[in-house]
Structures are given as structure tokens and as C-alpha cells.
Design a protein that fits this description.
The chain has about 100 residues and is of the alpha+beta class. The protein is built from two helices and eight strands; from the N terminus they run αβαβββββββ. It has one domain (about 5-95). The structure holds zinc ion.
């Protein structure tokens, strides 16, 4: 029996859209948010799974980028990149837990 994430990767690769992990979104997210978000723990709004955003699967050959939950494939984050603005949809994230360095 194969891992479902392996199946997703094969399906996406067959469509020509390589599946990366959430670290691939680091550049776009750091441009929008002042802190490193890929280390933030996100609770999926679909299944409640909690994991770092870096653990999500990342699809970047859409009009923007999409991060999907590895547990249920629910879309957690969408970022559309315009020439002078960004649109961020976090409705797929129930809770985002950010570590703030002690001052
Ligand atoms: Zn999920």
C-alpha cells in the first residue's frame, strides 16, 4: 500500500505541476509577513491536523501558490501574486500558532 502523499505527488507530477513542501512558499510568505511563517504551526480547518506550514504540500504552478494539508488535502493557504500586490487566503487554517522570539 502506498503513502497517499506519494500518490498525490505522482498525480501532480503527471499534470506537470511538481509537488513541493511548504518550504517552497517561504519567499512569498516572508515578503508578506515580517516573521518566518513556514515554522508556524497551523491547524487545518478541514481535519484539525496541526503541523508546521513547512509540512504542507505546496503547489506553485497555479495563478499563485497553494498549500494543502498532508492529512486531508484541504486547501489551507492561497497566495495570489500580482505585480504590485498580494492576496492571501487563510480560511483553510483554523488557528495559526506563531513563536515570537523573547526580547
Ligand atoms: Zn487537514
Amino acid at each position: 500500500m502506498s503513502d497517499p502523499t506519494d500518490d498525490q505527488a505522482r498525480d501532480a507530477a503527471a499534470d506537470g505541476d511538481p509537488v513541493l513542501d511548504g518550504n517552497a512558499a517561504a519567499g512569498a510568505l516572508s515578503e508578506i509577513f515580517a516573521i518566518e511563517l513556514t515554522a508556524a504551526v497551523a491547524a487545518c480547518a478541514g481535519c484539525g491536523r496541526r503541523a508546521a506550514l513547512a509540512d504542507a504540500t505546496s503547489y506553485q504552478q497555479a495563478p499563485g501558490l497553494v498549500l494543502r494539508c498532508r492529512g486531508c488535502e484541504h486547501v489551507m493557504v492561497r497566495v495570489v501574486l500580482g505585480p504590485d500586490r498580494r492576496w492571501v487566503d487563510l480560511t483553510g487554517v483554523a488557528v495559526l500558532e506563531l513563536s515570537i522570539p523573547a526580547s
